[in-house]
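From the pipeline queue, job 12 of 40. The input is one protein chain; the requested action is below.

Action: predict structure.
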Amino acid sequence: MDLRQLRYFVTVAEELNFSRAALRLHMSQPPLSHQIKMLEDELGIVLLERNRREVKLTAAGRTFLHDSRALLDQAQVALQRARLSGQGRTGTLRVGMATSAIDRVLPAFLAGVRERGAQAQVVLTDMGSEDQVRALTQDRIDLGFVHARVVAKALARRPVHIEGLAVVLPEGHALAGRSALGLLDLAEEPMVTFSREHRSALFDSLVAACMNAGFSPRLVHVARHPMSMFQMVRQGLGICVVPASYASAAGKGLCVFALPPEAGVIQIDAVWRPDITSPLLQEVVDVVLPDLVPTMGSSN
């Protein structure tokens, strides 16, 4: 028994006429009758009662018709899923994403996946850049969005987002009344920064930006999460310099100033292993990522 015989049987059962069924199937009647007889012989049951005047389903035939339709539907689904998978349009895509990319990069990335008609499940994990590199090498994620300062020679990469820096101050701070701030204005301020152990790319970016501006930052307090940093600033423990996308979530009691581009920028790169042959990943790399044009973000 094969799917072709099931299709023959279902067509005859729907028409209850061998001539009309043969016409639908674009074949002559004798071969069709022979295939139905072979199917009945293999099953050892009569599916269709036929004489010169009519064709009727037996009780076994009605049961077999129901199940045959279900099998043909399942086969069609399997065929479609296989085609989509071969085209990179179905499956599961494991994605790591640095926190600063979630607000700015993630919406456009997910929209790009959906616009391709991909029936893909995106499984997202908020991960530090270094953790993503390790996860990629260990095949625990398929695609990462990391800070560009992370060096990973074995990985392919594409820039997808660039944003500036912003300074976050408590509302009562002496600098809060200014109309604008530059990085050099912060030279004497105690700073709350990310722990280098957890966010080394952001830590290094801040230090490099300050050094380029002509001073060494006063790094007094460290935190693992931007919300912790903002709470420390709110308590008057210092000020913080963060990617603009973080600053948009600073909340009450804080003032946010976008720093000029010369203060430094943060770049987000998509990274993946070029040796992994996944049609879905290849579709994303070839079609979705090129649409994520890296433009300067803002704190708004």
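Job complete. The longest strand covers residues 156-170.
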